[in-house]
User: Fold these one by one.
Assistant:
Number 1:
Amino acid sequence: MTSKVSALRRFVTIVGVAFIQLTLNSVARADFTQDWAVCLSGDVQSHTAATQIDACKRVVRANSFTGDRLAAAYFRLGVAQLRANQFDDAVESFTAAINLKPGYAKAHANRGLAYNGLEK
C-alpha cells in the first residue's frame, strides 16, 4: 500500500510540475508577443521611447528571431534610442540591423541621423 501511495505522490508531483511549466511558458509567450508589438509600434503617442527601448531589448535578448525580423527589432530599437537622444546606442542598433540585412536603406539613413546627433 505504501508503494502505491508513494507512486501516486510522484505522479501528482510530476503532473504538477508539468502544469506549472506549461503555464509559465504561456505567460512568457504572451509577454513576448506584447513586447514584439510595442517594439514594432510606430505610435509615439502610445509608447514612450523608454518603453519601446525596453520592449525591443527584451525581443532582441529572447533570441527568438533571426534575419529580417531580428533586423527589424534592432531597427526599431535604434529609432526609439534616437527619440531618447541615445545616439551612441542608436548607432550600435542600426549597425546591428545593417549587419543582419546589408541593404536595409532605412537603417543606413537612420544611422546617419544618429551620427549627426553625436556631432551636436
Number 2:
Amino acid sequence: MEKFPEISLSALTKDPKDIARPKDEPTLLYNAMIHPITQFTIKGVIWYQGESNLYDAQRATVLGEYGGIGLVLKEHLWEPNRNWGYVQFSTSKEATDEYLKYANMLKDMIARGFSAAVYTQTTDVEIEVNGLMTYDRKVIKLDEQKLKRANTEICESLK
C-alpha cells in the first residue's frame, strides 16, 4: 500500500490559523498512525460511547473516545462567539475534577478487561473547546500535575 506524501511536522508548532490546509491534502494522521500498521493483521474491537459489546476475552477492548470536557478561555478562541464542547465548565478546577472522575471510571474499566482509551481531545480545534490546551497552544486548561498523577495510576494499573 502506498503512503501519502509527508506533511511537515514543523507546521504543528505554528499557530493553527497560520497553517495552510488545502482540502485535497492528505492528513498527517494517516501517515503517522495508520500507514505503519497496514501490513499487520489486526484483531480487536474499538468501543464507542453507547455500544454494549464491552468485553470479549479474545480481543483488545478499547474505549474509542472519552472526555470532551469543554472550558472556554475567551482570549484563546478560534471564534469568540461560537464554541462547543460535550460538557461545559466554567473553571479549570471544575474541568480538572471532571477529568479525574473519568480517570477513576477508566481504572474500573481496566479491571473489566479494557486495555486502552482515546481522550477527546488534546487541544481545542476551531470551535471545539474540548481540548486540554487552548486552540493557540498557549494555555494548558486543566491542572497538569493532577492529570499526570491520574494518568500514571491508569498506566500502572494496566501492568
Number 3:
Amino acid sequence: MKTSETFKELPEALLKAQKAIDIVKFNKTAGGTKFSFQYADLEVVVKAVKGPLNDNDICFIQGTETVEDHHFVTTRLMHKSGEYIEFSTPILVAAKLDPQAFGSGVSYAKRYALMMVTGLVATGEDDGGDKAKKKSQAQEKAKNTLPKPNKAELEVIKKVYKALFDSAPEGLILNQDKIAIYIHGTKNGYISDLKKVGVIVTYMASSSQIMNSVCDKQARGAAKRNKTTSQKPKPEPKDMNPDNLRYNCFECMTSFDELGEQGVCPNCSSHKDIVDTDAPDTTDIPAPE
C-alpha cells in the first residue's frame, strides 16, 4: 500500500464518506445447480461508493498492471488536496486464460478492491436469509398445528413408541411426539388400526434416517443412562491356597500355609524338602529294588 507524503486531509474526508456508505444487497447469482452463490456486481458497488466519495472531494481510478507474469488491479483514491492512497489486488483467473476469464478476474478484483478501501459490505440476508427463515418458521408452524390424535390413533402411536424404544440409536432417546408427526406426514393422517403397528414398526426400524428423525437429539446420552445395563460381577479374590494345604519345610523346620514366589519356602527361600501335610504317606512304600 502506498500513500502520499502528506496524509491528513484524505483520511478525514474518507471518514465522512464511509459514514454515508450503506450496505448493499446481492443482486446476482452465479454457479450451477449443485453449487451457487450470490454477489453484488461491479455496477452496484460503484453506485454505492461513488456518490459518498465524490461528495467528500474524493475520486478513484483503477487500472491493471503486470509484474513478473502476475496480473494486478491497482486502485487509487485521490483527494482534491493531492493526497492519495494506492494498493494492488491480484487478478485471479482459472487455469484456462482467455479474454473472458481475464475480464471476469479484473471485474472481481475491482469490486473487492473498492469494497475493501471504503468498508462497503454486501449481504444477501434480506433475500435468501429471510426466505430460509420464513420457510423454517412455516415448517415449525405446520408441526404445531397438527390435529390431535383421537383415542384409537393415540393408542397406535403409543404402541409404536413402545416397540421402537430399544431401537433408538446410541445416545438418543425416542420422542413420541415426533413419531406422531412422522406417521401423520407419511400417511397424511393418523392411523387407528392396531393391526398396522407391526408394519409401521418394521419399516421405521429398518431406516437409521427415520429413527434419527424421531429421536430427541438434544438428549444425547439420556437413553444410554436410562437403559439398564448388566454389571459384570466382581471377580472373587484369588485364593492363594485353594486346597487348604499346609506345607512343611525340612530345611528350616517350619510350617506355613502358602508357598513363596516360585514355590519356595517363605522363611528360608529353599525349594528343597518342602512337602504338604496332606500328601500321601510314603514311609511304608518299599523302595524299588
